[in-house]
Amino acid sequence: MASFQLRQFHFFKRESLKDLPEAFGQPDLLMASNGGDLIFLADSAGFIHIVNRKLVVRSFMAASDAHGMRITQMLHIHQTRTLLTVEENVSAATSRSAIKLWSVDSLLRHEDTQPVVVKYQQPTSTPYPLTAVAATPSISQIALGFAGGHMVLIRGNILKSKSTKQRTLHVAPEPVTNLHF
Q: How many CB atoms neighbour CB 172 within 10 A?
C-alpha cells in the first residue's frame, strides 16, 4: 500500500498590516466595490473613499447627507474607468433615486469633477426604490431593477448625456434583486 502525503503550498506571505487607513475602521460603511487595483467604499455621510494597492485613500463627497441622500448602489465599470453610484432620498416617504457617473481618473488626480447625471423616468406613478443596477462595459446601456418588479433599460450615448432612450423591459410581481449584462 502506498501512503500519500499532503503537501502545503504557501502562495502568500502573511503580513499583518499595522497602519490601516481610517476608511477601513469606520463603522458606518454602506457599500463596497472593486475594480482593477482600487477599492471603493461608501459611508453613510455620503463620502466615497478610493483605496489603492498602497492603501492610500482619496475621499470625496458624492451624496449630500443634508438633503437626505444616501448611496445605495455602487458599480465600477473597468473598461471606461467610471464609477456608477445610485443615491436615494432615505428621509422622504417617496423614494427618488439619482444615478451618477464619475470619472475615476479625474477623481484620482484630485480634480474637482462633476458627475454625469443619468436622467430616467419612474416606470409607474408609485415610486419604488431602485434595487438593482447593471451597465455594459461601454456604458451604452444601463439596466435598472425596481422593488415593484419593473426592469427598465436606458440606452444611448449615456456618458455624453445626449439622446438616451428608456424602455420598460419586464414587469414582475416580485422585486428585482440582481441584474447583469
A: 12
Cα separations in angstroms, 106 against 81, 113, 127: 10, 7, 33
Stated as kind and residue range, the H or E segment containing 24 is: helix 22-25
pLDDT value of position 1:
58
Q: Three cell numbers at 109?
A: 488626480
In DSSP terms, which residues pair with 85 in a beta bridge? 74, 100
Residue, of 163 and 126, whose pLDDT is higher? 163
* pTM greater than 0.85 (yes/no): no
Give the burial class of 37: count Cβ atoms within 10 A of its Cβ; 0-12 exposed, 13-18 middle, 19 or more buried: exposed
Asked whether 73 and 130 are in contact (CB, 8 A), the reply is yes
Query: Tell me, what amino acid is at 175?
Result: P
104: phi then psi, degrees, rounded to nearest 5: -65, -40
Condensed to tens digits (0 to 9), the pLDDT of residues 69-114 reads 888 899 999 888 999 998 887 766 656 678 889 989 888 887 777 7
Report in angstroms the alpha-carbon separations of 52 from 35, 38, 55, 136. 10, 5, 5, 24
Non-local CB neighbours of 165 within 8 Å, separated by 6+ positions: 154, 155, 156
- Alpha carbons 97 and 89: distance in angstroms, whole number: 7
